[in-house]
Amino acid sequence: MPQPKYLLALAALLVVNAGCTKAAPPDANTVTPSEHVSPSPVGTSQNILQKTFSLKTSATFPFEIPAHAVQPHLHGIFQSFLGEVHGASDETANIDFMVLNEEQEADFSNNRPGETLFAVEKSHNQAVNFDLPASMERPVKYYLVFRNAENSKRSKAVEANFRVDF
Q: Hey, what CATH class is 45-165 in?
């Protein structure tokens, strides 16, 4: 049977050993997202759509907001015409316009009902000014969607000019 003084010495050694054990220092190369420094897009602009196109059913134009964009602002204008550019531009040329995030665009593409970030219904001439959410540490993808008005069998021509300011 071990003697009490040996047990006491063994316990003391274990306590001293546990007190001297140090945790490994954090890896100096590990950077958390909040410590990530990258060029800020603040004060810049990006053209995202400057085009004239034919619209039979719908047209989708993706664009991306870079990381660290604190207050991205979408602005632009579109005008639609019946048949060809500079043809009739009245109620017969009405289209729908939407701004969607990735999840909403997936719903739209799969004909599932869903929400939009921004929408204009039945318009043939519209100015758009819309603040997008901040992108934080990752880039965010959005979509401009133009859709021919319901029950319209006639093709439309659309002139669109959009940009994002950061």
A: mainly beta
